[in-house]
Write a structure and sequence with these properties.
This protein is of the alpha/beta class. It folds into 3 domains: 5-36 and 57-315, Aconitase, domain 3; 322-429 and 437-484, Aconitase, domain 3 (2-Layer Sandwich); 553-754, Aconitase, domain 4 (Alpha-Beta Barrel), CATH 3.20.19.10. Helix content is 31%, strand content 17%. A hairpin with a 5-residue loop joins strand 19 (488-489) and strand 20 (495-496). The longest helix is centred in the middle third of the chain and has 16 residues, at 364-379. Residues 557-686 form the Aconitase A/isopropylmalate dehydratase small subunit swivel domain. Pfam families: Aconitase, Aconitase_C. Its EC number is 4.2.1.3.
């Protein structure tokens, strides 16, 4: 039986009424996305039609999922909210703090030792507040959620940007910062700007070397890393129904890479098969009773151009396998063109590593397709030219794959089976073959490939592909290898070709597991004591941020003008810094150290206006904070893209930064800034970015009149005494301005709870 089946049945019990009411209010047929959104309104049934991309709307999500790196800060915040238990079903998953190095057993043991303080904290907090806890080694959060918690037509939020993976089971699942999750844990509504809708019509059927991963690699090439911002991507059509449930999850997972709020598919037979295979026949039976409401209306899909803000059509019969990268997940290249493109751009041809797994591609089907290629190499006596690393998605996947002989196939190619955890995908990889910064190439089935993402080396060229394509390229050892036409030389000196991959959607013997890794909380956790040592380097109880004094902000200095791409990885790096995710002051020592200074094109090297000397960003900012001087961060387009980590907002706030002024924001990061009491502003005229000089001082002359839909005026004073006056836009509504006034959204929640 499924977890929280009573909650799921309750959602379905009012779905028909709410969908029908919404259809009447909106006055037209509804997409699946609209059905889920309107059936999860905080106030119940719809009373008005919301404007896409404009209206802020309060929702009531069904559940929350947190991974261990972000859960620390989320739960530290929740502890301040004054609640005895979480208001909705919530889970914590320990998957980020396990470094891949030697192999599963040794690496897990090492993580349990080095991060025991954090794991113990998370387990005790979960036990106290009624939160389900998944132990280290249980699996990657999004695969575990898909196997256990996701359900068609539901709404979920999670403190990880790839929460969107659950769209593969027909949810509207959205990545948020911890403060958003705390709102819902505390029984408050969750606010979101009503998304725009991008429809992707899929026709035909995948075959040969083309996989579900290639669908989203193609979409990423079309939309780019910011083309989906503020929108839900809804997939439909015959081609969508022809995809497996986990294949749909892969596509939704990487929707985060185009900035989409989330992605989703309508409920169909593949989802029903997956629910039943994962011991959730009760969910499948309940979903079948409201099946018509778990997909878009027929009229929508018959005339999609009338109901979506943007429409993309992809014929799966014609889709070719792709590799995306390097350094950005939207640089899409068909495999057949990679050789010429690599030569043109001088990308390293030799491939050092092939990495299979991550939350994007670690299902049973993924492993079978990759294993079918690996077995051919063994049988045809082809020795792999690259190193292999495998991260199964969950203990259930690992146990079943081991039972069915899949892991042994990879081990026959000398692959290393890492822990059921994120590992190299998030920089948790102690890469043994390279310690310097040599120019090199790796291929992986992950979702992100930003500079330094996997191994900390800015010269590692990482390319994203399907598990089977990663396997083929790693076996060949060459980036320009096209398995659809190129041959390999085996140990007998014979030329052989790899046959097309073969996959198994669901294990014929069913899934199996001895210990899935779940720990249920006490029914009454009031007696559970949560301890945080005062001298801990890993954990630190939070001190509330100071509220706004109600005055204009003047005399603010420029901390850094970031040039080009500035992701949350640049603002708050992962990798070795993950150990400090529960200690705000310690992790603030990585604040903006990856951002490129526009004036010298160097990272972590900015001018201290107090001394005229150059130093690291955190060191300079701590000097400004010591002197009580407010500061401003200036950025480029899509500032804060990538992970949902709210540390990228909390660290500057903790260190005394008051304003982030950019050309445009990624959605989650903009919300995170607002939640933490920061001013997140955009240039009314993008070219004003060029006016900002290294020694500038900023005066916000009309902040006292801070109001919705009203731009702010900024006086920029240059070192020579000259001035420029510019306008800055914002998207704060009245409740969000209250967050700012109180110093943070959490401060406001505490005040309301106290009252």
């Amino acid at each position: 039986m499924a977890y929280d089946i009573d909650m799921i049945k309750k959602v379905y019990s009012h779905m028909a009424e709410r969908v029908n009411t919404a259809r009447e209010v909106v006055g037209k047929p509804l997409t699946l996305s609209e059905k889920i959104l309107y059936s999860h309104l905080w106030d119940g049934s719809a009373k008005e039609a919301f404007q896409r991309g404009k209206d802020y709307v309060e929702f009531s999500p069904d559940r929350i999922a947190c991974q261990d790196a972000t859960a620390q800060m989320a739960l530290l915040q929740f502890m301040q909210a004054g609640k005895k238990q979480v208001a909705v079903p919530t889970t914590v998953h320990c998957d980020h703090l396990i470094q891949a190095k030697m192999g599963a057993a040794i690496d897990l043991q090492s993580a349990n030792k080095s991060s025991s303080e954090v794991f113990d904290f998370l387990e005790s907090v979960s036990n106290k507040y009624g939160i389900g806890f998944w132990k280290p080694g249980a699996g990657i959060i999004h695969q575990v959620v898909l196997e256990n918690y996701a359900f068609p037509g539901g709404m979920m939020i999670g403190t990880d940007s790839h929460t969107v993976n659950a769209g593969g089971l027909g949810m509207v699942a959205i990545g948020v910062g911890g403060a958003d999750a705390v709102d819902v844990m505390a029984g408050m509504p969750w606010e979101l700007k009503f998304p725009k809708l991008i429809g992707v019509k899929l026709t035909g059927k995948l075959s040969g070397w083309t996989s579900s991963k290639d669908v989203i690699l193609k979409v990423a090439g079309i939309l780019t890393v910011k083309g989906g911002t503020g929108a839900i991507i809804e997939y439909f059509g015959e081609g969508a129904r022809n995809l497996s449930c986990t294949g749909k999850g892969t596509i939704c997972n990487m929707g985060a890479e185009v900035g989409a709020t989330t992605s989703t598919f309508g409920y169909d037979d593949s989802m029903e098969r997956y629910l039943r295979a994962t011991n959730r026949a009760d969910v499948a039976d309940a979903a079948n009773e409201v099946r018509e409401h778990l997909t878009g209306d027929d009229e929508v899909y018959a005339n999609p151009e009338q109901y979506f803000d943007e429409l993309i059509e992809i014929n799966l019969d014609e889709l070719k396998p792709h590799l995306n990268g390097p350094f950005t997940p939207d640089l899409a290249t068909p495999i057949s063109e990679m050789g010429a493109k690599a030569k043109e751009h001088d990308w390293p041809i030799n491939v050092d590593w092939g990495l299979i797994g991550s939350c994007t591609n670690s299902s049973y089907e993924d492993l079978t397709r990759a294993a079918s290629i690996a077995k051919q190499a063994v049988d045809k006596k082809v020795k792999a030219k690259s190193d292999f690393g495998i991260n199964p998605g969950s203990e259930q996947i690992r146990f079943t794959a081991e039972r069915d002989g899949l892991l042994q196939i990879f081990e026959d190619l000398d692959a290393t089976i890492f822990t059921n955890a994120c590992g190299p995908c998030i920089g948790q990889w102690d890469r043994s073959d390279r310690k310097g910064e040599e120019k090199n190439t790796i291929v992986h089935s992950f979702n992100r490939n930003f500079s330094k993402r996997a191994d900390g080396n800015p010269n590692t060229h990482a390319f994203v592909g399907s598990p089977e394509m990663v396997a083929a390229i790693a076996i060949s050892g060459r980036l320009d290898f096209d398995p659809t036409r190129d041959k390999l030389m085996n140990e007998d000196g014979e030329e052989v070709m790899l046959d097309e991959p073969q996959g198994i959607e669901l294990p014929t013997k069913g899934f199996a597991v001895e210990d899935a890794g779940y720990v249920a909380p006490n029914e009454d956790g009031s007696s559970v004591e949560v301890k945080v040592a005062e001298d801990s380097e890993r954990l630190q109880l939070l001190t509330p941020f100071e509220p706004w004094d109600g005055k204009n902000l003047t005399g603010a200095k420029l901390l850094i003008k970031a040039w080009g791409k500035c992701t949350t990885d640049h603002i708050s790096m992962a990798g070795p810094w993950l150990r400090y995710r529960g200690h705000l002051d310690n992790i603030s020592n990585n604040c903006l150290i990856g951002a490129i200074n526009a004036y010298n094109k160097k990272s972590n090297f900015v001018k201290n206006q107090l001394t005229g000397e150059y130093d690291g960003v955190p060191a300079v900012q701590r000097e400004y904070k010591k002197e009580g001087i407010p500061t401003v961060v200036v950025g480029d387009h899509n500032y804060g893209e990538g992970s949902s980590r709210e540390h990228a907002a909390m660290e500057p706030r903790h260190l005394g930064v008051k304003v982030v002024l950019v050309k445009s924001f990624a959605r989650i990061h903009e919300t995170n800034l607002k939640k933490q009491g920061m001013l997140g502003l955009t240039f009314a005229n993008e070219s004003d970015y060029d006016l900002i000089q290294e020694d500038d001082t900023f005066n916000f002359v009309d902040l006292e009149n801070f109001a919705p839909d009203t731009p702010l005026t900024i006086e920029i004073v240059h070192a020579d005494g000259s001035k420029d006056t510019i306008k800055a836009n914002h998207t704060y509504n009245a409740p969000q301005i209250e967050w700012y006034k109180h110093g943070s959204a959490l401060n406001l929640i505490k005040k309301q709870n106290a009252a």
